[in-house]
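From the methods appendix. Each design record in this collection lists the tokenized structure first, followed by the designed amino acid sequence. Records were kept in a plain field format so they could be parsed without special tools. The example shown here is representative of the layout used throughout.

RECORD:
FOLD TOKENS (493 positions):
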């Protein structure tokens, strides 16, 4: 599969588009302000030891001192102590006997600062790769618990053969997305992680305290590590400064990717040139047009995502069965592309148009699975159910595009619809009646959206007057342009 990668960089945001045969297949976004500190390794300086709290404050160069608890010191974990012949449940060595004020200490952030609290630290260093997590101070090979138990031992032996004795070279944990990785991919990750650890150790020897030694890869660097493959023809980046930095990184860690890097110098924005912004706008909508005239409706909920296929205005085939078949065939590729483009994960239900012929169903399913096979994220698809639905799952790897770029509507709170002005007017009338039974104000004042006030003044004026007579109190109305349609206040005067 021929692949091109476009990178649009700005100080506040990095955006990456993956194109296959000229069509946008994936969008990745990283915002500078949203990058946390978790995973970063610093050379800290012990500012204060607190024996009463069994913790210490460590200065790592941030605005607030970070926090290190005795349980997060290397060797304090029960499993580690048991491996060294200590009682598993024995208390750890007091922190005041392990660290002292002014001491330089290599630490890793395990929890970002929140409010007035500083970051939480650990001296048990781990470096995450695409498929593996390297534990340079540990001596065991671990396999993700999410991988089926019957496969773990086979994977452990494979990783042991590739990585060597963990007691000598350090330990590894195979991540869930490494379950189907080849030996070559695992070996590349092992080599990258060991090189990253060597750089971290070297930096700790030459840099002063409060220096950062290792930072989790940014999106630009992850592009080289995770997205570039044999089919990648070019990686085009529109920033000269970032191009030079990425080129230096590639030459050190991924030489094969370095030759594919290109600096885009065109005056026109790179995403405009390839229509990427238009694709992002379409990927945030519910409706996806098909070339045949049919269309998809994509609905994302908390529990699952549904994709409904419709023929629309497509009448090009000789008979209705062929029309349905051709629409479903085109939809199979379009659905697979939308899942990647929107980064939809979890349970997904594809509602293809009902087909009577078994050979048509088999062909659509084969086409669907062929396109899903190009997805770098693990997917599993079932067969057609009795209701004509295809159930499938796609592994969640990060937030969906919609969740990253959008937030729930302030008016409808994410429901996608609001009550009509008449419904809200009737809610107000009922609420006034409830209030009148509990309180005895001089007057009721209704503050609501302009459309609701107009409804009460015009079409519902008779009912409002009748309610006022019934409760024996005047009801005044006040329009508030800033209110959403369902929002109102009833003020007792």
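DESIGN:
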């Amino acid at each position: 599969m021929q692949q091109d990668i476009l990178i649009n960089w700005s100080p506040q945001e990095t955006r990456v588009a993956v194109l296959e045969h000229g069509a946008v297949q994936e969008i990745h976004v990283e915002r500078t302000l949203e990058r946390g500190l978790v995973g970063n390794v610093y050379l800290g300086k012990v500012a204060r030891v607190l024996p009463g709290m069994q913790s210490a404050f460590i200065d790592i160069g941030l605005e607030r001192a970070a926090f290190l608890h005795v349980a997060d010191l290397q060797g304090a974990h029960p499993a580690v102590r048991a491996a060294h012949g200590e009682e598993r449940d024995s208390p750890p060595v007091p922190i005041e006997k392990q660290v002292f004020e002014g001491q330089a200490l290599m630490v890793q952030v395990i929890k970002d600062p929140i409010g007035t609290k500083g970051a939480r630290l650990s001296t048990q260093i781990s470096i995450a790769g695409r498929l593996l997590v390297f534990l340079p101070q540990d001596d065991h090979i671990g396999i993700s618990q999410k991988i089926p138990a019957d496969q773990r031992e086979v994977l452990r032996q494979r990783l042991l053969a590739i990585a060597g004795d963990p007691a000598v070279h350090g330990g590894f944990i195979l991540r869930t997305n490494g379950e189907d990785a080849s030996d070559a991919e695992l070996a590349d990750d092992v080599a990258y992680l060991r090189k990253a650890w060597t750089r971290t150790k070297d930096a700790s020897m030459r840099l002063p305290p409060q220096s950062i030694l290792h930072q989790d890869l940014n999106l630009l660097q992850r592009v080289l590590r995770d997205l570039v493959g044999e089919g990648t023809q070019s990686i085009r980046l529109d920033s000269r400064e970032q191009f030079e930095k990425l080129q230096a990184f590639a030459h050190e860690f991924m030489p094969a990717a370095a030759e594919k890097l290109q600096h885009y110098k065109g005056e026109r924005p790179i995403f405009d040139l390839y229509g990427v912004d238009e694709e992002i706008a379409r990927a945030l909508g519910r409706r996806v047009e098909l070339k045949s005239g049919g269309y998809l409706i994509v609905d994302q909920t908390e529990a699952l995502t549904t994709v409904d296929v419709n023929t629309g205005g497509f009448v090009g085939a000789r008979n209705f069965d062929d029309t349905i078949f051709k629409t479903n065939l085109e939809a199979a590729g379009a659905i697979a592309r939308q899942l990647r483009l929107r980064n939809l994960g979890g349970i997904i239900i594809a509602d293809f148009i009902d087909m009577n012929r078994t050979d048509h169903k088999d062909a659509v399913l084969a086409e669907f699975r062929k396109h899903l096979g190009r997805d770098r994220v693990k997917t599993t698809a079932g067969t057609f159910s009795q209701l004509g639905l295809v159930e499938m799952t796609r592994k969640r790897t990060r937030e969906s595009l919609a969740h990253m770029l959008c937030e729930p509507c302030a008016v409808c709170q994410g429901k996608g619809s609001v009550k009509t002005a008449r419904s809200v007017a009737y809610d107000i009338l009922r609420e006034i009646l409830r209030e009148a039974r509990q309180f005895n104000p001089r007057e009721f004042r209704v503050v609501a959206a302009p459309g609701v006030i107009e409804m009460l003044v015009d079409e519902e004026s008779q009912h409002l007057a009748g309610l006022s007579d019934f409760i024996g109190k005047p009801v005044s109305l006040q329009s508030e342009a800033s209110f959403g349609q369902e929002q109102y206040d009833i003020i007792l005067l």
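APPENDIX NOTE: The two ends are 71 Å apart (CA to CA).
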